[in-house]
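ENTRY TYPE: paired fold submission
RECORD: A
CONTENT: sequence, then structure tokens
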Amino acid sequence: PAPVRMAEAEALMVGRQMDRALVAEAAESVMREVHPISDQRASAEYRRELSRVLTGRALEECAANAGRSL
């Protein structure tokens, strides 16, 4: 795995207040932007869904660390 910037999700978040709707939008955007492989460990679809879930969790944690509740 390699880190990849998600330009669409980044652009979506610029200048907006962090809230649950924005977290969901950004996570969906990431899911559309990633192009994972399928292999014996996991399907590409599963990896796309995982990217959505982990993006949401990461953004929620960032908000919490900044003292913002969603």
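RECORD: B
CONTENT: sequence, then structure tokens
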Amino acid sequence: SPGRGSVPPELSDVLERDSEARDMWDAPSPSHRVEYCEFVSEAKRPETRVRRAAKTVELMRRRRARKGELK
């Protein structure tokens, strides 16, 4: 489960509310998780960070779907 120290609050909130997203959070490598966190936290406006947090979950879902297609 993500720690609030490294995960932006906007992303942490999404992960807390969405159990599927929370389960997916552990799948990417640590470097990918860092990139996701930076993508969210680098936005200046709060509403942009919220949008980017939602986009991060969408990206994780797409990555998971692609991996499923490869099996």
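NOTES ON RECORD B: Residues 40 and 49 are 5 Å apart (CA to CA). The radius of gyration is 12 Å.
STATUS: closed
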